Amino acid sequence: MKKIYITILSTFFIFLFANTAYAATEINEIEPNGSTTQAQVIVTNNEKPAELIKANATGTNYVHGNISDRTDEDFYKVFLSADNKNILSIADSAISGTGIFEVYDEDLTLITSINYKKNSLYSVTPYYVNIPKSGYYYVKVHSTLLTGDYYFYIGGPHYQFNNYEYTASSALTLTPSEKSVQAIYDFSNISSIPDNAIIWSVDLNGTKTNYASNQYRSIKIYGDSYWITTGPYVFSTSVSPTSNERAKSKWVYKLDGSVSKSAKYFSLIPKIKLWYMYPVIPELLGQSYR
Fold first, then answer.
1. Do 95 and 109 lie in a common domain?
2. Which of 2, 54, 157, 239 lies at a CB distance of 3.0 to 4.6 Å from 279, suitable for a disulfide?
3. How distant, in Å, are the alpha carbons of 23, 129, 141, 180 from that of 155?
4. Final residue belonging to a domain, choices 106, 133, 156
5. Which of 243, 230, 234 lies closest to 277, judged by CA?
6. Does residue 73 sit in the same domain as residue 107?
């Protein structure tokens, strides 16, 4: 195929990295690459959650190629570490349904063959690739019918971002004598939140009545000792992904503050917004190790 210079980033990258120098790396296909001897050398995807939330996607590496006809075969060469959790993530590609992605070792022994079909739930369709020993491997891309552009990551998982918002059904109330109250909100059965989603920011807003000074709003996972605290003026904060706070959990919400005798009470109907990220892994689509 002819070299086509098109840069198409996922919606997330457009949104998050449009104004930063730390963008994801698009590895454009370079012809000729129609055999293992002509294979284009690429690098693995190595996304780091703690860097992604700082708009640093320097570890995000993906390949952009094109299948021009049914005889076109594209080869790439990549170093992979021994692991049964290497992931080949294929993004929105024109060859969905007839595209075939194959991984070979240096002796050209077939490791896995994937008949790619786009899923409608996530930005990529992930597949496990069991690498028995560290070394160089070949990725071969071809299609039995459809032609057009394709995108893939190999190595570590690709991350997606989303959020979950919840408004409590009843208010929490402080009084001159009651300076701290708690409530439990259970998100552990919310199907829209992936099991492996970790939070990176929280908003603890809500509908309030009257005034409380020295007001703090906090949440923590039920059973944990670590509180994520906001206030007294801004009720949102970032959370380090390394703390591994799972969004899909039972949460304890705490409201602290001081109410004057003249005010008599302060009430808040909590509105919780959890911003989370998660690796798109095969288990999300009901797949297991290959």
1. yes
2. 157
3. 18, 9, 16, 47
4. 156
5. 243
6. yes
